[in-house]
Task: inverse folding
């Protein structure tokens, strides 16, 4: 899956990025014991591998945010007839 780190993040505010990070923080730290998302962000400033890893995790966060937004916008269907 190709990702573009500039797709949504450049136009977003710091609050948006904070929200996106909150969607992946727990999963990232579970997948990378002993590391935090802040560790990855710091390393991404000088490591192309870590920059790519951060980009991929942020793409997951964006997908989760889009799914949550879509679910919120969809009216609940009633099963009662």
Result:
């Amino acid at each position: 899956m190709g990702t573009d780190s500039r797709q949504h993040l450049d136009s977003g505010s710091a609050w948006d990025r904070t929200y996106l990070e909150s969607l992946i923080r727990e999963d990232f730290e579970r997948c990378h014991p002993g590391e935090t998302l802040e560790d990855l962000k710091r390393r991404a400033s000088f490591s192309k591998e870590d920059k790519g890893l951060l980009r991929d995790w942020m793409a997951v966060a964006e997908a989760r945010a889009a799914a949550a937004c879509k679910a919120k916008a969809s009216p609940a269907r009633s099963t009662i007839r």
About this structure: Confidence is low (pLDDT under 50) at residues 3-11.
